[in-house]
Amino acid sequence: MDLARREAVGAKFSADAMKRAQALTWDATEKIAAIIKPGMRESEAIAASKALLGTLGMDRIWHPVLVRFGENTLRTFSERSDNDPVLGDDDIYFIDIGVVFGAHEGDCGFTRTTGSDPEMQRCADDAKRLFDIVQDHWRQEKVTGQALYDFAKTQAQALGWVLNLDIKGHRVSDFPHAIYKGGKLGDLTDTPSGGLWILEIQIAHPTRPFGAFYEDLLV
């Protein structure tokens, strides 16, 4: 499939509307993070997140709300959480939401910690740091999606982490993007355009059972 078909959008698509949807989704994610506290079960955090989203004027949720605690931060989007862990006082978690605002898809995720574990904090920080490094590489070098994730893997190793290459990014657009069958960003043999693709970064600690996640619109 050629790039034009992978990057197709609907008649109602607007780049400004995409930016607005992403900004509102980030705001929603921050609001969710503010209500997640130690002592909550993962299922409770997800239920609270959905309830909060329902108050924010969204059109709909377009992908399942994910909140992962502790060891579940190693699991990919399509994997079910193991049990229903309680968030500890010295723990790590991430949020991943996909919400439609103004008929356009927002999608973002980030990792936070609850305590002072230096490795957990560094992991959370480096997921965002790695995203920025990879996005800057795309902006400067105009590489393909495949090359972008090859670069991400190397950079993750340089920072001391293991990149999960089962998570490769994806299309977003006016809802629903799925009809365009854009595929995975990391499988793209062309240079992706800005404002249409979500760059996903998921890293794992090399020896301890936790990881971190960060995603945002590639712009």
UniProtKB/TrEMBL annotation:
Pfam families: Peptidase_M24 (PF00557). The lineage of its organism: Bacteria, Pseudomonadati, Pseudomonadota, Betaproteobacteria, Burkholderiales. Residues 17-177 form the Peptidase M24 domain. This is (Fe-S)-binding protein.
